[in-house]
Amino acid sequence: MENCCECKQKQEENTNVKPLQVQQTDNPQTSPTIQNSFHRRHLPEGCIAFSSSEGRKLFMEAINSSDNYMQIYFPLAEQFITQAEPAYCGLATLAMCLNALQIDPGRLWKGPWRWFSEELLDCCKPLSVAKEKGISLTEFVCLARCNGVLAEDYRATNDFTLEQFRDIVKQSCATSSEIVVLNYSRKVLGQTGDGHFSPIGGYHAERDMVLLMDVARFKYPPHWVKLFSVHVFEAMRLVVKAMNKPRGLVILRENPHATDSTLLQLKNCNQENCPDNKQGVAAVGSAPRSCCYRPSAAEASAVTNSSVATQL
Asked: SUPFAM superfamilies of this UniProt entry (predicted)?
C-alpha cells in the first residue's frame, strides 16, 4: 500500500543530524528514550524556510506581483496545524484544508462545536491503522469526498506534464476557493522520510517556486521549493513500489451540492466500498456521506469543466 508519512526511527538514523545526547540520571521524570529523540531537522539545500530572510523576500515578491498567486495562503494560514501523530500527515492536511474551505463537518467536535480535526476523519481507514501506516492517495481522496468536498486527483504519470502541473498550481493559488494537496516523496527533496502530504500555500511565478505548508512542523517548517528540476514535480513522479504507481496531487473544492441538510444527515461509513479495503472491515465511525462517496453526474461535470488538465 502507498502509505504516507513513513517517519520510522530507522529512516531518521540515516541523517547527519545527531539525536540529542543526555547523561544517564536517576530522575524518574526523565524518559530513557530522550537519548534517541530529535528536535526538528535542518532543511536541505534547495528548500527555503518560510521565515528566513530569503523566504520572507519570496513571500513579499509573490504577494506584490501583478498575478498574486498567494490568494490561497490566507485561508490556509488561518487553519495551519501540526499533525498530532508522526503518520497523520494526510489526515492533518485534509482537516486543515476542510476548515480552510469552511466545510461544515455536520457532527460534533467538542462541546457544541462542529469542526474538523484528525480524529473526525475516521472512515475509509480505521484511525488505529492510519496512526501506524498513514493513508494512501486513494484513501485521501475517499476521505475528502466522504466529508463533503469535490476531490479531483491526478497521478504524476508520464502523461502528466509539467505545464499541466504549473497551470493547476496557478489556478488554485489565484483563488481562495480551491486547494492543491501534493502527495510526494521527501527523499527527492533531500529530506528524511518518504511519502508525505502537503498543501500548496502559494506560488512565486518569477522563481517558479511553491510554498509547502508542511503539517509536520515538529520536523520541518513551511518552505519554498522549486516546481521543476529535482524538486516537487519529480517528487510526485517517484513510483511507489508496492502499488507500481507514482504519487500525485488532489484538487479540493467546495461542493455546491453538499447542503447543510445533507451534511447533517450522518451516515455510517461503509468501508466495504473503499478502494483499498480488501477485507470489508466494519465501520468505525460516522461521516456525512456514505464512505467513498462518488459525485453525481452534475458534480462530475462541474469538476471536469473547471479542470485545466485531463484527469488521470
From this structure: Cysteine proteinases (SSF54001)
Does 276 participate in catalysis according to the annotation?
A: no
Known catalytic residue: 269? no
Catalytic residue among 5, 123, 124, 196: 196
Q: Which of 197, 218, 204 is nearest to 73 (CA)?
A: 204
- The DSSP code sequence of 48-100 is EETTSHHHHHHHHHHHHSSS-TTTTHHHHHHT----SSTT-HHHHHHHHHHHH
Residue 88's closest CA among 268, 205, 219?
219
Average pLDDT over residues 71-82: 96
In the chain, how long is the greatest CA-to-CA distance?
66
Instruction: Answer for the pair 177, 197: CB distance below 8 angstroms, yes or no.
Output: no
- Tell me the C-alpha distance between 158 and 162, whole Å: 10
pTM: 0.77
Q: Which residue bears the cell 485531463?
A: 310
Q: What is the C-alpha separation between 215 and 85, in angstroms, rounded?
A: 10
Question: pLDDT tens across 194-236, in order?
Answer: 999 999 999 999 999 999 999 999 999 999 999 986 589 999 9
Asked if 210 and 99 touch (Cβ cutoff 8 Å), the reply is no
Question: Among residues 7, 47, 89, 124, which one is catalytic?
Answer: 89
pLDDT at 31: 54
Paired sense of beta strands 195-204 and 248-254, if any = unpaired
Please state whether beta strands 149-155 and 178-185 pair in parallel, antiparallel, or not at all (unpaired): unpaired
d(CA 39, CA 22): 13
At 100, list the grid cell: 480552510
Predicted confidence (pLDDT) per residue in 104-115, tens digit = 999 999 999 999
Which candidate, 63, 58, 94, places its Cα nearest to that of 76? 94
DSSP 8-state code for residue 118 = G
* Catalytic status, residue 5: no
Q: Give the contacts of 149 (CB within 8 A, at least 6 positions apart).
A: 97, 98, 101, 103, 252, 253, 254, 255, 258
Domains present along the chain, CATH in parentheses: 47-265 (3.90.70.30)
